[in-house]
Amino acid sequence: MAIDDLRQFIQLLQREGELAEVGVEVDPDLEISEITDRVSKANGPALLFRNAKGSQMPVLINQFGSERRMQLALGGRHLDEIAEDLGQVLEMQVPQGIVAKVKALGKLKNLADSAPKLVKTAPCQEVVMAEPDLDALPILKTWPDDGGPFITLPVVFTKDPMTGKRNAGMYRLQKFDARTTGMHWHVHKDGAENYRSAAGERVEVAVAVGTDPATTYAATAPLPRGIDEMMLAGFLKGSPVEMVKCRTIDMEVPATAEIILEGFVEKGERRREGPFGDHTGYYSVAGDYPVFHLTAITHRRDPIYATTIVGRPPMEDCFLGKATERLFLPLLKLTLPELVDMNLPLEGVFHNCAILSIKKSYPMHAKKVMSAVWGLGMLSLTKFVVIVDEQVDVHDESEVAWRVFNNVDPRRDTVITEGPLDVLDHASPTADYGAKMGIDATKTWPSEGYQREWPDDIAMSDEIKRLVDGKWQSYGIDLS
């Protein structure tokens, strides 16, 4: 059953025992964040704060903060199952034979049914503020040295000025006053490119807060430029995302969102934004970013304010990132058919480390894959790429470390190059670019210059394993 708005998702979380409600008054200035950080680190539930100090709006946080809730958000199926369906659509070729054609028609229909749908009236416009006032929103200050309160779970809509195609991304918004925020567009993001390439001086922007979970996730997904995130959201939730025209700008937004911010940024106008306690676990430094001016705020009756807190992992955003790891693996395999599996470890905060297993077929194959990764979309920002053989479980980080520490000759098997890095990388001496390392932890072949005899892994024979399995109870050893 499709989840068409945030309220349906909250009801589902309640039924599944995945939501805790807090009735006492709590302060959006640091207190909610400290509570949520403790709950998140303890693998606790989503939180609905009914009484946020200074606002009439309840606050929902940590809605995606576990693997199970992430699966519930995307329809209740295992992420690898969803990835398989997505991969089948992505790899569609000209069908041969009547059965194949019928199956292809079904896939195309599913894709066509995912297209967003324009509606004339919408819950998100039930209330139109006479004057846009951000003070009405319980915007969180999440860490003590933050530059101010930040909107941290917004779906930000812009248009490609050349094609008119919609883009949805997630970029934090620091509240400056009741009518302006920062617009934290990283240089590598599509929102920033739309801003840079706009012909006029004014760029219209719409922001949706409190969307259905598939739409929120889609805004974080690293889709190729020009692919509509709302199409992905519709595919994931199994029904079209309904969109409605904004009141004051030429933009469409999710009709069932809780809150909509309409406005614009002016070319050349910038203001100091930050610092901000970021998902790296460190404060990202203050910088100059465009200013978002509000022209309208609309919302549902009795709106719910959805937000998140980021910091040292594990936290809620880790599970959004893990969803991307699983859902986009089939897309990567279209480019890299030798790829078996991938792990973006939480400690690497998704842009600092990628561990990939491959079916190695020729000398220096691992180095070819490294080069490919550094040329693929947002993966191009990866600072460390580790390649292991196909039988290695990339999600067993202890096994990966064992392979690296034992199989790697530092001179032969490491590659250091330069290229773009994530804006949040603070280790590089230069902003936005720097050094990267590739580590080939695959078995080295004689054709790669190895002149010794590579040892076999130690493994017990299957015969003895079966013998011990059959007699295990007689040994009287309790391993529970």
Give a quick rundown of the structure.
This protein is α+β, with helices and mostly antiparallel strands and about 475 residues long. Helices cover about 30% and strands about 25% of the residues. The chain has helices at about 5-15, 30-40, 65-75, 80-90, 100-110, 190-195, 215-220, 230-235, 315-325, 330-335, 365-375, 395-405, 410-415, 460-475; strands at about 20, 45-50, 60, 115-120, 125-130, 150, 155-160, 165-170, 175, 180, 200-210, 240-245, 250-255, 260-275, 275, 285, 285-300, 305, 340-345, 355-360, 385-390, 415-420, 435-440.
- State the shape: globular
What Rg is obtained from the alpha carbons, in whole angstroms?
A: 24 Å
CATH class categorisation of the largest domain: Mainly Beta
**Beta-strand segment tally:** 23
Per DSSP, the total helix count is 14
The amount of helix comes to 25-40%
* Residue-averaged pLDDT: 91
Estimate what percentage of residues fall within beta strands: 15-25%
Structural class by sheet pairing and helices: alpha+beta
Q: What's the end-to-end separation, in Å?
A: 38 Å
Main sheet? 7 strands, antiparallel
For the record, the CATH architecture of the largest domain stands as Roll
Low-confidence stretches: 92-96, 98-106
Output the CATH topology of the largest domain: Pnp Oxidase, Chain A
Number of domains: 2
CATH superfamily of the largest domain: Electron Transport, Fmn-binding Protein, Chain A
